[in-house]
Amino acid sequence: MKQRAVISLYAQTMLRPPVLATLVAGSLVLASPAAASPQGVLGFGHRAMALGTTGTASAEGADAVYENPALLSAARHTTLQLGFEGAALGLRVDGPGMPGAVGATPLRATTIGAVLPLPFAGILRDRAALGLGFVTPTDVVVRARLLYPERVQFPLADRLQSVAVQAAMGLDLGHGVRLGAGVTALAALEGDVLVRTDVSGKIGTQVSDTLVASYAPVFGASWESASGRHRVGVAFRGELVGRFDVVIRAEDLGSIVIPPLHVSGLAQYEPWQLAVEAARVEGPVRVAFGLKYAHWSAYPGPAEATVRCEDAPELEGACDAKVPQPVGYRGTVSPRFGVEGVLDLGPAAELKGRAGYAFEPTPAPEQRGARNLFDMSRSVASVGIGVAFARLPFSLDAFAQLQMLHARTHEKRVEDGAPSSFTVTTAGTLSAGGLAVTVKLR
User: Whole-angstrom Cα distance, residue 46 to residue 24?
Assistant: First the structure.
């Protein structure tokens, strides 16, 4: 299926509707790929996703590319993981003038993970490995919607719709200490649209755009006991920003004076995060408990100013540009827990049962005014199963998640002649699942 990038516009300008329609039509062809991380919502790796999105101290194989790159160094075999995952959202917003059920595009994505131990000799033998991880939606590259703030919208839905690309390396320093580093990469967009009247008197557009790379660092470290049964881990993921900025310029439109228009904002955003975890990683019952801090207070909001007065000095102070208000997000701390039971089925196979829980508090404030940028805290319950075959070079992993979006009440206060207020309630669910096969290549 052909992939596409989807961008909707949020524009506040002084333009007449026919001219604005022409400019917007010209700008829409600039919808272009960007990438960020749906693993910020679901996790990465079918094992970690079944274990309450734990993994900073307990990840195995390709899961470690995202959870903690230091743990890649524990790999002893070259492996390739291929899988599929899907997610569906059921959202509601009830109150005066509200739509009730809100539709959201489901996620359907393929996943790829690879781990390659580096064939060093001597002191570095069996101490270093590379890892790659990809999540690729089947029908979009990225979805970014910049709507008027009064429109009912749930940013959580769009965070699921993007490509995730990451690479990392892990190194075993000995004495139970492992270190790792990597990057998460995405494409950002810069472009120009020139609108002008041609010799026949018709308005036309000339479009140019450029993809530029944007990166976020990932660092990890772990320490395990002498027995190898217990491990603690810490991981840092840098801020990941998928920004686009398309500048629309108008020339030769007669007496109409139009300042440059910026179709700009954040297509995707993940704040910097710090995760810590302790885990029992050997034995018939394995457990992990961790905390993750996400610095959402740095999030500026999805939209940037469309009209910028400094771009139009010819208006001589008549410019009345509007600037989007800050969204007022705050940092969050998320606890998570996972447990895995291992059952030996004899010489043929090993069966692993998994379960976990995580709580993701919302960073968004209550929507009290005209803005309807809704978000809710989430309880993430997960289960999964893994089967490793002793005589076959592959294993299977499956997971299922149910995320309860806790009901939230928003007390709206509207000043329109006389003060008035009303109540809006939001709630929803997110269900997800997937299956992956991991092949041992050598």
Answer: 41
Among 377, 375, 391, 376, residue whose Cα is nearest residue 440: 391
d(CA 384, CA 49): 8
pLDDT score recorded for residue 115: 96
Rounded-to-integer distance, Cα 82 and Cα 392, Å: 16
Distance CA 258, CA 428 (A): 43
Tokens of 265: 């904002």
The Cα 183–Cα 131 span in angstroms is: 11
Give me 129's structure tokens. Answer: 């490995």
Query: What letter represents residue 305's amino acid?
Result: A
Q: What is the DSSP string of 250-310?
A: EES-TT-----EEEEEEEEEE--EEEEEEEE-SSSEEEEEEEEEE-GGG---SB--SB-GG
Q: How far apart are CA 117 and CA 120, in angstroms?
A: 9
CA dist 345 to 287, 383, 384, Å?
21, 20, 18
Q: In whole angstroms, what is the distance from residue 56 CA to residue 64 CA?
A: 8
Residue 347 in tokens: 């010489």
Nearest of 430, 431, 429, 426 to residue 100 by alpha carbon:
426
Give the model's pLDDT for residue 253: 65
Q: In this predicted structure, what is the pLDDT of residue 145?
A: 64
Could you tell me the domains of the chain? 5-440 (2.40.160.60)
Beta strands 349-360 and 332-344 are: antiparallel
3-state secondary structure of 120: coil
Greatest distance between any 2 Cα atoms in the chain = 84
- Predicted TM-score (pTM) of this structure: 0.83
Mean pLDDT by 10 residues, the chain (442 residues): 38 38 38 51 92 94 94 94 93 89 88 93 90 86 67 77 86 95 80 74 73 85 94 95 79 70 79 96 94 93 74 60 78 96 87 96 89 90 93 92 94 68 91 94 83
